[in-house]
Structures are given as C-alpha cells and as structure tokens.
Amino acid sequence: MKGPTRKRGTGPLPALDLDRDQAARKFSQVAEAFSHGPGVTAGEGKGFGSGALKVSGKIFAMISSKGKFIVKLPKYRVNELVAAGKGQRFEPSPGRPMKEWIVPLDKGVAWVQLAREACEYVKRSTL
To answer: What is the pTM of this model?
Structure first.
C-alpha cells in the first residue's frame, strides 16, 4: 500500500537529514569560508543571530536552534529553489513563511555556494 502523497508545493517538506551536531559542523565550514571576507562578521552571544553570518551588520546566513541552515535570497530565487524541491521557505513559527529566507533540503545543495549568493544579495540590498 502506498503512503500518503503530497502535491508539489503544498505542505512542509521533510527537513534535510542532519542532526544538530552535523549541521553545526557543516555551518562552521561555511563560516570558515567567509572568515576573511571584507565586512563579514559572525554572530556572537545568545539568542537570534548568535549563529549567524552578517555582512554590513545584516544577517545573510544562519543556523537555527534546531540545526537548520537558513539563507536570505531574493524572493524569485527562493521561489525557484522551492519549485525545484531543493528547499522550503523558512518559517520562524508555523504558518508564517518568510519570502526571502530558505532552508535547503537537498543534500546536493552546496551551503557555501548558497551563502555566497546570499552574502552578495544582502550586500547589494544594503547599498
């Protein structure tokens, strides 16, 4: 017997199968790739933004308290990734998806590459 089916673009997709430690290690590789970038800083302390990378003081990539990697991209790019099944919109609370924030779901999605794209987008939007 087949399990329930999900229409494309409806309902939540399964999260990328990484535990918090794996996600933290993978995010540290992203942070390392940006460690010498001009204007890029890493969040410190506790609370929102503590596990974040910022450019010009604005967050472009972060790891959530649940171990999800999240990046800020233009709305059209988020729509493309969602339509391709490679990500889902970030929801800080259930039912409140953010238009410019995405959680990659595909293991084939390169976090560093997405973070570079996000960094450039945020950098351009702060000019």
So the answer is: 0.78
Residue listed under structure tokens 């991209």: 73
Judge whether 91 and 98 are in contact, CB under 8 Å: yes
Domains of the chain: 20-125 (3.90.1150)
Q: Please report which confidence band the pLDDT of residue 61 belongs to, taking 50, 70 and 90 as the band edges.
A: very high
Strands 52-55, 40-42: pairing is antiparallel
User: CA nearest 72: which of 45, 106, 42, 102?
Assistant: 102
Q: How far apart (Å, rounded) are the C-alpha atoms in residues 112 and 104?
A: 12
| CA gap 44, 120 in Å, rounded | 22
12 HSE (CA, 13 A, CB side):
11
Q: What is residue 75's three-state secondary structure?
A: helix
